Q: What sequence folds into this?
């Protein structure tokens, strides 16, 4: 563990990206087309979340979806129909046949398309670090879904990719809650001192088992890819793939990353095959300045969906569920208007695509409009380092739980273990 974790984190972010925040570039230099024409977007990975992302980018960002790429034909066919409908409503042509890419080379084909200004990466997490690096190398603006990688080398590669993107393209990572108005206001108040000095917190993400569709004709390898959500290497396990949203919020609130974790967990209660993801994680994250966050999660059985964070300080406490009253109690009491009527957390609707209602209702629309605006204005985002920091934080909890040993941030960063799925997508 380093002696001065705050400056350690500043050093991490400073070396991770040349300049946090914006890099302003003249709009006419932003892409080959005119500054006032619609940004042309390609979707790589035409599944549930990619479809929600790209649709929202079109509707809320005023962009056009002009290209689609996926490993599997059925996904591409469904997406083409959907995005042709979206284009029809926007009074322009649908996706051209020449901009439909399928198979093991679909990623490089869409990234090399001269018709595409920006790319949405919504493939399984295992592919993100490679797809992100290729997208930036091809000069595309990128909206990459979380997590940026499944292992430490992948997260570090995303940081290097972010350095290459700096000043050339806009790079967003899919933590849309950071744009949800209730959360933005809550965190603003916490950073302004509404809780006083924070001592401890709690974060949880409880989710029922996520059943995947049957693919009776699929080979074992294809089935693994289709059911990537149950696969440790392809997903990063539930803490890195799904629970990362609440870990990201802890980092945001505490303006830091954990410097140590202890943890436990296991697969008890999960029996799906193929699949080896754990059913639950229980972790204590140690943040700088002696702040401890107890984290717990599950993804199995029939758990009601519930996700939230709580922080406790000398002047007050906060609670920030996806659904239900989002508020601060104590010296500066405050409740997000409307959230008190939005049901209790236990009744929150789960969305496998991230298209939530209640406190997250505007998360996607704000996030996606902001991404396109960053391109159009030339005020490029670079969220690679922050995205990697949250991925590494979740990996810290995962490593502590897998090994049963206390694990420090510095020890984690020394890991050179590359996760290999042993899948050759050329041979499907
Ligand atoms: N931000 C959020 O709230 C949120 C919500 C859900 C999912 N996600 C993330 O979005 C990503 C996608 O999740 P999903 O639920 O849409 O999964 P999905 O399985 O529905 O979609 C993934 C798509 O990628 C395709 N694919 C797989 N490997 C590929 C490859 N090598 N090249 C091209 N295409 C490939 C699949 O055929 C599939 O169509 C994941 O990283 C997930 O963590 C984010």
A:
């Amino acid at each position: 563990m380093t002696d001065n974790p705050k400056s350690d984190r500043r050093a991490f972010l400073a070396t991770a990206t040349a300049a946090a925040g914006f890099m302003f570039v003249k709009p006419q230099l932003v892409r080959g087309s005119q500054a006032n024409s619609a940004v042309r977007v390609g979707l790589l990975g035409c599944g549930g979340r990619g479809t929600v992302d790209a649709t929202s980018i079109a509707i809320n960002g005023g962009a056009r979806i002009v290209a689609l790429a996926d490993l599997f034909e059925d996904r591409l066919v469904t997406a083409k129909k959907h995005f042709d409908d979206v284009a029809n409503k926007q009074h322009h042509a649908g996706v051209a046949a020449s901009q439909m890419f399928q198979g093991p080379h679909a990623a490089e084909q869409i990234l090399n398309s001269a018709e595409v200004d920006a790319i949405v990466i919504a493939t399984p997490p295992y592919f993100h670090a490679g797809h992100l690096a290729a997208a930036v190398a091809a000069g595309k603006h990128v909206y990459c879904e979380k997590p940026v990688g499944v292992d430490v080398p992948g997260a570090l590669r995303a940081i290097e990719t972010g350095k290459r993107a700096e000043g050339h393209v806009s790079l967003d990572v899919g933590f849309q809650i950071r744009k949800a108005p209730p959360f933005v206001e809550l965190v603003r108040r916490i950073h302004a001192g509404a809780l006083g000095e924070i001592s401890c917190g709690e974060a949880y993400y409880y989710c029922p088992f996520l059943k995947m569709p049957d693919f009776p004709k699929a080979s074992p390898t294809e089935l693994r890819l289709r059911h990537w959500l149950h696969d440790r290497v392809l997903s990063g396990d539930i803490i890195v793939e799904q629970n990362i949203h609440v870990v990201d919020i802890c980092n945001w609130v505490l303006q830091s990353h954990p410097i140590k974790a202890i943890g436990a967990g296991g697969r008890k209660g999960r029996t799906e095959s193929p699949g080896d993801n754990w059913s639950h994680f229980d972790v204590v994250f140690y943040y700088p300045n002696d702040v401890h966050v107890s984290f717990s999660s599950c993804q199995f059985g029939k758990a009601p969906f519930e996700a939230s964070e709580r922080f406790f300080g000398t002047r007050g406490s906060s609670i920030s569920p996806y659904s239900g009253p989002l508020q601060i109690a104590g010296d500066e009491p405050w409740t997000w208007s409307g959230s008190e009527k939005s049901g209790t957390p236990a009744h929150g609707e789960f969305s496998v695509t991230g298209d939530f209602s209640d406190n997250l209702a505007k998360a996607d629309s704000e996030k996606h409009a902001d991404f396109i605006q960053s391109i159009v204005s030339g005020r490029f985002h670079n969220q690679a380092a922050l995205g990697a920091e949250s991925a590494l934080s979740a990996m810290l909890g995962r490593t502590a739980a897998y090994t049963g040993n206390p694990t420090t941030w510095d020890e984690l960063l020394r890991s050179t273990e590359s996760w290999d799925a042993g899948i050759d997508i050329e041979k499907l």
Summary: The pocket of nicotinamide-adenine-dinucleotide is lined by residues 44-50, 69-72, 75, 106-107, 122-125, 127, 145-146, 174, 176, 225, 241, 353-354, 425 (CB under 6 Å). The longest strand covers residues 198-207. The two ends are 44 Å apart (CA to CA). Residues 18-22, 32-36 have pLDDT under 50 and may be disordered.
